[in-house]
Design a protein that fits this description.
With 369 residues, this protein is an alpha/beta fold. It has an eleven-stranded mixed β-sheet with strand order 3-2-4-11-10-9-8-7-1-5-6, sandwiched between helices. Helix 4 packs across helix 5 and helix 4 crosses helix 7. The radius of gyration is 20 Å and the shape is globular. The two termini are 37 Å apart.
Length: 369
């Protein structure tokens, strides 16, 4: 897991995030307690958030000095982190596990919106017809705001010039992604098992704890939260499989639907992923429904070999996955004619880069406003 956040060549600011997972993996007593949690609660991620939450709340010395604050610089990292982490965990193991048992992990990496926007652009093929956006596992609803952000993709710049948040994404490989231009979003709704109430300071503190302790990630989160609080959008609380048919049925039939899943479907059991595809297939009998997935391979970890959407994967991509977790971006469209799908790209887990894999090279965006 650490390698996915900070592989060789990653910015030094991500070293603390990787070190957190390294330290958790090396703490036998903590691991023993985490093993009592259900796997679907994501114990390692929960533990990293719980430690971060308690460190920010209690400010223990010297451990707190390694954790950045939004808008500040990334503190210097050194090997003193590991003994400080071990001492903190030994003294606060009960508190850490109590936080893990009482909360769910809520990752809201808004930088992934750049990758999602590119996927939407590819899915609609340049059409300006309005779409309905359904964001699965939306958490705080930050993914529902993606047309209110500005994007730098390679040398191109897109989105409103006055946006309160700008997101950058490097382009890798020889194929240029499509321009990151969105159709008008005529309707939008999120679905989440446990939505985050951004009006609640305690909920915002937990959301911050679930964000990698990297200064740019924290600053992005703070800006996105401000936008979402100014433009609240509807979020339905409930299990995705249970509530999605009703959500899709409530959208006017003349609107094409884009269903976005960013790091949600990978955590569903195989039978639930199959059920998700069946629901979308049924909804596609009346109008086009595109499922845009940004997910790691399944199963999670270096043994992952399959797309959550069942799309064919190049063998070279599977081999690369064994050396560091990344996401694959895929699109499946259901339109009553059997559907179609294609693998679009592979992508950094925190939105830092994208490598386009599908289609002919597309013209890049123009720089500037």
């Amino acid at each position: 897991m650490a390698g996915g956040w900070a592989p060789s060549g990653a910015p030094e600011s991500w070293r603390l995030t990787a070190a957190l997972f390294e330290a958790i993996a090396a703490d036998d007593e903590l691991l023993e307690q985490l093993a009592t949690l259900p796997p679907d609660r994501l114990p390692a991620l929960l533990a990293s958030a719980a430690v971060t939450f308690l460190v920010r709340r209690d400010r223990p010395v010297p451990l707190a000095g390694y954790f950045p604050e939004p808008g500040a610089s990334q503190p210097r990292f050194d090997d003193g982190f590991f003994p400080a982490f071990r001492a903190f965990c030994a003294a606060h193991l009960t508190d850490i596990i109590e936080v893990c048992r009482s909360r769910r992990y809520q990752m809201s990496e808004v930088a992934r919106c750049t990758q999602i926007v590119l996927g939407i652009a590819a899915a609609v093929g340049g059409s300006a017809d309005p779409v309905a956006l359904v964001d699965l596992g939306t958490g705080a609803g930050l993914g529902l705001q993606l047309d209110r952000y500005r994007y730098r993709v390679g040398t191109g710049t897109y989105g409103p010039a006055a946006a309160g948040l700008s997101l950058g994404c490097d382009v890798r490989g020889p194929i240029t992604p499509p321009p990151a231009e969105l159709p008008r979003i005529a309707a939008r709704v999120g679905v989440d098992l446990d939505p985050v109430d951004l009006q609640d300071p305690a909920a915002r503190a937990w959301l911050q704890a679930c964000t990698p302790p990297e200064v740019s990630a924290l600053s992005r989160l703070a800006a996105a939260v401000n936008i979402a609080r100014r433009h609240p959008e509807p979020v339905i609380a409930g299990d995705v499989i249970d509530v999605l048919p009703g959500v899709l049925g409530s959208i006017p039939r003349q609107q094409r639907i884009i269903v976005v899943d960013a790091y949600m479907a990978v955590f569903l059991p195989e039978d639930r992923r199959t059920r998700l595809a069946d629901i979308l297939d049924q909804a596609g009998l009346g109008r086009p429904v595109t499922w845009l997935s940004l997910d790691p391979l399944v199963p999670l970890g270096p043994s992952g070999r399959d797309s959550v959407q069942g799309l064919p994967l190049p063998p070279a991509l599977i081999r690369d996955y064994q050396h560091g977790v990344f996401a694959v971006l895929g699109a499946r469209t259901f339109d009553g004619a059997g559907g179609r799908g294609r693998l679009l790209a592979r992508a950094h887990p925190s939105g830092g880069w994208i490598q386009w894999l599908s289609g002919e090279p597309a013209p890049g965006g123009e720089g500037g406003p």
